[in-house]
Amino acid sequence: MKKRILSLVLVAILVFALTPQTSAASEGPTFAPATTVEQRIDEIKRMADKYSHTSKYILESQASSKATTVDGLISRWVRGTKGSFNDIFSQLATSVHEEYHGFQFVAAGSRQLVDNRETTISYSRSSIVKTENATGNLPENKRTFRWDTYVSPNAAASSNVYGAYGLLDELSAYYYDCRAVTDCVEYLLEYINKNGFSHELVSGYFTSTVNDVVAFHEFTYWTLEYLLYLKEHHPSNYNAIMDNAQYRDSFVYFHNNFSKMEEDVLPKNKEMIFNYLRGKGIGVRETADAIWLGDIGIGTDVYKNDIAIIKNVMREAKYLGMLNELLLRPSPAPSPPPTSTSAPAGQTATPSAWTVSVDGGAAIACDAYSIGGNNYFKFRDLAMMLNGTDKQFDFEVGAAIINLLSGNAYTPVGGELAPGDGQSRATAPSRYHFALDGKAVELTAYVMGGNNYVRLRDVLRLLDVGVGFDTAKREIYLDTLKPYAD
User: Are the CB atoms for 9 and 212 separated by under 8 Å?
Assistant: First the structure.
């Protein structure tokens, strides 16, 4: 379910291996102003085909499951859209959002697209505590514009009926409709280049994306409110959710990617659009309460107010604590909690004679060690080696957890890839737990000289990096375009 209210901006592309289509959509968008429903349906399909592989995958998957065509699916949402045909972004977003809800439905839970894969979150619908128990009595000053539809008493939405799982269904649907629009930002520029400025097209982009950002904050806030309520009043239900690895992995994926969309991609897209319009002689500016396109403003104050309300609430320690637990709680969590590594104490590290090359580059001889017959590299050196490749990663260091952020560019601090001193060292197991994109993982790690050294194969396995060895030359070859194999 989705309410589209004029509101008010990631280009991250999920690539699925789809069989090339021979339909007209494969020719790309026409960029011609639509005058009929059929023209608009065809153009939306062409947009997804060229710019948004994720949207195409969702629509084609649903068309296949419903024994219909992509045109037939889009038709439902375009024909029901009021207003000009030039508001193509909201029509695209609505089509993807609603059909993703259909994609989610499975008998025993919910299906999600997470990190290039379909995953099923299994849960029992019969034991769900409704969200309204936690959110139904929120005071007026903590209610945002979707509260009534999604989490108020007796709301019919799945986000109320199915608790945390229903809230995740809405969060992910808003993520993919926002992603559909941001994937297609190039369409906006091409359209204006060919046809001249269209206020409706540009305002449609901004209203769709800002609307979705508000939804990101709302459904995150309500999820935390719900989990805090369960933890106090229904601990068994709470533990069932927190021990559901598929649920938590999915939440982490959508939360982190939506955050990146809000904080990085959308601001860059906005600046790009502003600069492009100014280059075309269109006056554009942003004030506290609106985005101005010439003399016509797109009101943003009510949505900024809603986001401000939620961010103010989320500063409270209980919400920060719950979000941190949801993002970083080990999975599963046996008792006692596992250590971060399986590193035995009392090992001696001897300098490694192996060099490393990445994707055919020059051999690198850095501060590496052999411990128990395995190669161990400084954590930061591995991040530096893979920087700029498809398998790059950055990391966050917390009080007890080092969280790898896959796909993020590494920020050097100095001293990376420096050669060692050739001396053997005594070791101690690292005190850190490790996580990959918020999910607890097992890494064998030692600390030497204040630095964490990790077993090379552990990291390559986590990041799915191909590896080969030349024992005669003592060279290790990393191939970021091939999968890892033991």
Answer: no
The residues spanned by each domain of the chain are: 24-328, 348-479
- Measured CA to CA, the distance from residue 244 to residue 26 in angstroms comes to 40
Minimal CA–CA distance to 221: which of 80, 376, 326? 326
Please give the model's pTM, rounded to 2 decimal places.
Answer: 0.66
DSSP 8-state class, residue 400: S
Q: What is the pLDDT of residue 227?
A: 97
pLDDT of residue 342: 55
Of 161-175, 198-212, 255-269, which one has max mean pLDDT?
A: 161-175
Q: DSSP string spanning 307-367? A: HHHHHHHHTSHHHHHHHHHHHH--SS--SSPPPS--PPSS-EEEE---EEEETT---B--S
Closest among 240, 260, 247, 220 to 439, alpha carbons compared: 247
What percentage of the chain carries pLDDT values higher than 70? 89
| pLDDT at site 139 | 94
H helix intervals, 162-280 = 163-183, 185-195, 199-233, 235-242, 245-260, 266-279
CA of residue 143 relative to chain centroid, distance: 26
Residue (of 68, 76, 120, 125) closest to 97 by Cα position: 76
Look at residue 348 in the predicted model and tell me its pLDDT: 85
Which residue type does 45 have?
K
Average pLDDT for residues 248-274, to the nearest whole number?
A: 93
| Mean pLDDT, the chain, integer | 86
